[in-house]
Specification:
heterodimer; A: 59% helix; globular; B: 80% helix
Amino acid sequence: MAIIVNLDVMLAKRKMRSKELAERIGITEQNVSLLKSGKVKGVRFDTLEKICEVLQCQPGDILEYRSEAMASST
Amino acid sequence: MGLAPASTMQAGNNELSRRVAPLCHAIRWSALVWIIWASVGTLSVFGSPARVVEHYGRVLNVDLTSLPTSGYAMALIIILVDLAIAWLIVVYIWRLFGHYLRGEIFTVAAVQEMWRGGWTGVAAVGADMIARPLVAYALTQHLGESQRHHFWTVPNDLLHLLLALFIVALAHILKAGVAIADENRQIV
């Protein structure tokens, strides 16, 4: 998919585990894991807001658009 | 996909299920009472040819004392087929509301049960419309042409058909609802 989820990168930068993030934003660890792997159809604004609040980042740090052409060339 | 909003949705479904539970129980048991009542009523008439002669003689306003066994047997078979379809509707109603009671509201299984129930309802109304004149014919075929009954239907048949088709339409609408709910489950 053209939208890349960089949640794992942000978690690594903040030295935070998925479990802790899940607890702090109030969703299951399984969901965080699925979000990290990009296996979801969408992210709710309130989930994104909580993630940004906990990780002290911007939505753009979590989500990135990469065109198919760019993705295949990299 | 087992996403967390699924659990949120499940909680919502459980809440909805809790709210409609008394209705679900009432519908399930009413359906069961209805079919048992209908079966007992029908079989008490068809249990003996004498009762059939007495009952249908009164309903059709003819003297059926010379009713042949073949006429009685044919009417009995028609009535049993009609009753079997009615029992099938109750099975689908029981199963559908069982899904709702378990919180499986926006599920493919529940929609399928509703769809089957709706079409069985259409079949039951059709069978009813066909069975009535057939039973009348089976019971009066030995009589003279002037006393024979070939056709016997009521306006309520159309109402029942309408209600059954309404259920089928509702099942189609809920099928789209299940797809939306499924998509919603994939949003975190």
